[in-house]
Amino acid sequence: MTVTAFYQSLCEQLSGLLSDERDWLANTANASALLFLELPDINWAGFYFLHDDELRLGPFQGKPACTRIPVGAGVCGTAVKTSQSQLVEDVHQFPGHIACDAVSASEVVVPLYNGDRCIGVLDIDSPQVARFTEQDLAGIEAFAQTLLKHSDLPAG
Ligand code: SME
């Protein structure tokens, strides 16, 4: 199966999973569980929600993680500050990376929006250097869009 077909199928699974539910907390919880179950070679998948100028831990799968990240700090805070997805091949080369799980080696973070307001991020970590390609990023962004489309969103 190609990477594109893999994420297409993952988005379809997510659509099915969320078809009868629009609750943001319930849907982010199930989305993190689906990612953790289906994505090979990852050690953490989950959400941080934006409150004022800090991110706070939301639903996730993986080891316990840091609970608060200021906007601009780490990979997650950088995604919010720059309004851009972050594809980090080697987290040890990323200035200010916040290590929640020592085995994490690469990471992808996608900012989430309600209209033009950022409401949080989707964060996925892998123990493999360069686990995520641009194709993975595109697939994970499509996954995030599917989640947003199926949910009633916080105002941000
Ligand atoms: N590594 C992230 C912190 C969150 S954990 O990976 C779950 C960062 O640098 O923002």
UniProtKB/TrEMBL annotation:
One of its GO terms (cellular component) is cytosol. Gene3D superfamilies: 3.30.450.40. Signal peptide: none annotated. It comes from the Bacteria. Residues 45-146 form the GAF domain. One of its GO terms (molecular function) is L-methionine-(R)-S-oxide reductase activity. It holds the Pfam family GAF_2. Belongs to the free Met sulfoxide reductase family. PANTHER family: FREE METHIONINE-R-SULFOXIDE REDUCTASE (PTHR21021:SF15), GAF/PUTATIVE CYTOSKELETAL PROTEIN (PTHR21021). This is GAF domain-containing protein. It comes from Microbulbifer pacificus.
